[in-house]
Amino acid sequence: MDKRVTMKDIAEKLGVSKVTVSKALKDSPDISSSLKEKIIKTAQEMGYIYNAKGRMLRENLTYSIGVISSEKYYGKDDYFYIDLYKHLSNSLEKLGFTTTFNIISQSDENDLSVPNALLEQKVDGVVILGQMSLDYIQKVLSYSYPTVFLDFYCDKFNVDCVITDNFYATYEITNMLIEHGHTKIGFVGNIYATSSIQDRFLGFYKALLENKIDLNKDWIIKDRDDNNNFIDIVLPKNLPTAFVCNCDKTAYLTIEKLKSSGYKVPDDVSVVGFDDSLHAVLSQPKITTVRVNLEEMGRRTAKMMVEKIK
């Protein structure tokens, strides 16, 4: 049976002290980047296995982050939060943390049932991915874990959040439509569903106000109910010449509804979206959209979380 490689073995091979090897493997700022890189590379080549369990016991950390999200965001063809979670998980892994991903059913959210990982203190912090009910958020916060809201905010809680600039991005894409000659513009999205949709609507409305374009309430169309279940899009009798949709899936569904009703897109009605998701590519015609930098959102959330813990 092969002998387990130790820090002493690595130190002897490189002609440095065991303390130096230990500091390098812990990413200590006391060690230069070049030496740290050399030590880590040598450790990997020698097959060194880091004693993570011992580290967790010494530092009283699990090196695991609980990610909580509502099942309402994971319907058919809903990939946005799955992709965002992947970027968050990858960023945390680079910082030495694993993740436990908990998709909360509607009944558990209503019953305020939290994952066992929180109850059993198996995580060091919590990321709430996507807006959930106020009562459920309050229940999670009652366990006093370092917490970050991802892709939403709520002023009722003093919790840091990471979001994209929904307001300005929708303001910009609405102005683009206006610059192309559109003055009859509608908005598709339930403005009571999430803070993100509300901010996108407000950005849309600001663009109308600045260009002295009246807001036609008949052109504000719901795409989902308050529980985020998508519903049939009901087109108004008198159509605008363009629709700003709160997300690409809604834009896709709007285009399909228009085509099935005999309209040509974009000849009769133009449609723009938000997120730069798969739906923007699958749609015929393809959707002009706002690209959300999911990788950067994941990276910033991971960095913020680790800073809170350490």
For the record, the CATH class of the largest domain is: Alpha Beta
Distance between the termini: 38 Å
Number of domains: 3
CATH superfamily of the largest domain: Response regulator
**How much strand content do the residues show?**
5-15%
GO molecular function: DNA-binding transcription factor activity; transcription cis-regulatory region binding
Protein name: Transcriptional regulator, LacI family
Pfam families: LacI, Peripla_BP_3
InterPro entries: HTH_LacI, LacI/GalR-like_sensor, Lambda_DNA-bd_dom_sf, Peripla_BP_I
Structure characteristics:
13 helices; Rossmann fold; 310 residues; 434 Repressor (Amino-terminal Domain); elongated
List the helices and strands and how they pair.
Layout: H1 7-14, H2 18-25, H3 33-46, H4 52-59, E1 64-70, H5 80-94, E2 98-104, H6 106-110, H7 116-119, E3 125-129, H8 134-141, E4 147-150, E5 160-162, H9 166-179, E6 185-188, H10 195-210, E7 220-221, E8 242-245, H11 248-260, E9 270-272, H12 278-282, H13 294-309
Parallel strand pairs: 1-2, 1-3, 3-4, 4-5, 6-7, 6-8, 8-9
Helix pairs in contact: 1-2, 1-3, 2-3, 5-13, 9-10
How would you describe this protein?
With 310 residues, the chain is an alpha/beta fold. The chain has 3 domains: 7-50, 434 Repressor (Amino-terminal Domain) (Orthogonal Bundle), CATH 1.10.260; 64-164 and 295-309, Response regulator (Rossmann fold); 166-282, 3-Layer(aba) Sandwich (Rossmann fold). The chain has 13 helices and 9 strands. It has helices spanning 7-14, 18-25, 33-46, 52-59, 80-94, 106-110, 116-119, 134-141, 166-179, 195-210, 248-260, 278-282, 294-309; strands at residues 64-70, 98-104, 125-129, 147-150, 160-162, 185-188, 220-221, 242-245, 270-272. The strands form 2 sheets. Strands 2-1-3-4-5 form a 5-stranded parallel beta sheet, with helices on both faces. Strands 7-6-8-9 form a 4-stranded parallel beta sheet. α1 (7-14) packs across α3 (33-46). Keywords: DNA-binding, Transcription, Transcription regulation. Pfam families: LacI, Peripla_BP_3. One of its GO terms (molecular function) is DNA-binding transcription factor activity.
